[in-house]
Amino acid sequence: MLSFTLISAQSQQSTIPTTNPDTYMKGDMLLSLDIQAVKMAKPFSDAITWEGVPLRAGFEYLFFNKNKIFLSTGLNAKYLRHQPGNGNNYGVLGLAVPINIHVILIPRLDTYLGYKIGYYFDGYNPANESSTQGYEGMYSDGYLGVRYFLTPNFAIYSELSADAMRLYGGLSYKF
Prior knowledge:
- By secondary structure, the chain is mainly beta.
- Helices cover 7% and strands 59% of the residues.
- The longest helix is centred in the N-terminal third of the chain and has 13 residues, at 2-14.
- Residues 1-20 have low confidence and may be disordered.
């Protein structure tokens, strides 16, 4: 009878709602869409004469939480256009796997830092394969972000990326 009472008390305790519904729970997922607002540095190659505004979309899965610290991973996609010295425009698609550390210090406000590793697929193939023009290849990026939940599911956010010091702004949906 004693073991039955303990099991019953444990199951009742796990169904009690949290006092703050605006924080994450293990298993939460996020969909995000953003656009570059500001770029503070030049492209990595002087051969690139023009670069379009990147658009990004991402999926995150929160797989660990301890008090007010959460870890997440997922998949990010980034698309931009660029123009090397030859005058033509080419599309670039980047796919990356991020790892993020979220810290919730104030209800509804998510501060996070992360690192991602990915690969750029570039439509531009220079005649000289040793050329540094274009984006094709592996890349990595570190970033800091702030996300504010307007409702328990919808948020606005801003992220500062170490990649050319880009500042992004966007929307997130938690489910």
